[in-house]
């Protein structure tokens, strides 16, 4: 793949053009990454106050008792969204499914260890930890170790 950048005072605004023979997963990933730049923050609720959360601060998002929470370093903040809505919003930012009720931030993972039942115990940089169920272990290992052959999907 070739990348050409033309910086010139004559350009009024930034324009991105992609030329390809056919549509591919790689192109889909690139387009999602460009569009995801608009995803700046999520709105969480804590003690009747709305707070802005940058996706990079989130270790994982989980559903519990019909509510969705974002887990960060030392706090958990409720999000007024469904888990699948958060997943589609954060997927281009290297978030992936850990289980039916958890979506994790791959960029915040410090280390992981194999648990006795075939699941993974993921340790985040903040000290938080969460488990990946067996159904998602292979996909996460591929994304972490091999860089993910599916370009972030």
Automatic annotation (TrEMBL):
Record's SMART domains?
Answer: LytTR
Source domain of life is Bacteria
Tell me which InterPro entries the record gives. Answer: LytR-like (IPR046947), LytTR_DNA-bd_dom (IPR007492)
Q: Does the keyword Protein transport apply?
A: no
Q: Which residues form the HTH LytTR-type domain?
A: 42-146
Name residues in a coiled coil. Answer: none
Supply the alphabetized keyword list.
Cytoplasm, DNA-binding, Transcription, Transcription regulation
What would be an example GO MF term here?
DNA binding
Oxidoreductase as UniProt keyword: no
State what protein this is by name: LytTR family DNA-binding domain-containing protein
